[in-house]
Design a protein that fits this description.
Structural class: alpha+beta
Radius of gyration: 18 Å
Helix content: 10-25%
Oligomer: single chain
Distance between the termini: 41 Å
Strand content: 25-35%
Strand order of the largest sheet: 1-2-3
């Protein structure tokens, strides 16, 4: 099923697997299973199955996050946190 449409999460997961040089199969059939997992890889001679879920990030404005035990104000504007606790990319 190589030509099946991918969700944004599946696209990111595939990029990660490719960057790590991990071969995978998309929506491979598995005997005795009624549903196909999104991804199958072989790890230490055993199949590992993945189902990738997409979700919308929560709205965290006005809430706080904890980073290494420190409460930090949250900015849900798409910016990340630096090690110093300051907003990065803002």
């Amino acid at each position: 099923m190589l030509d099946a449409p991918r969700t944004p999460g599946e696209t990111v997961f595939e990029k990660y697997l490719k960057l790590q040089h991990i071969p995978f199969e998309f929506e491979k059939e598995h005997q005795g299973k009624s549903k196909r997992p999104d991804y199958t890889i072989e790890w230490e001679e055993h199949p590992v199955l993945f189902d990738v879920k997409d979700f919308d990030p929560p709205d965290l404005k006005g809430e706080s996050r904890t980073l290494r035990g420190q409460d930090l104000p949250c900015d849900a504007g798409g910016r990340g946190w630096s090690r110093s606790g300051k907003v990065a990319g803002g």
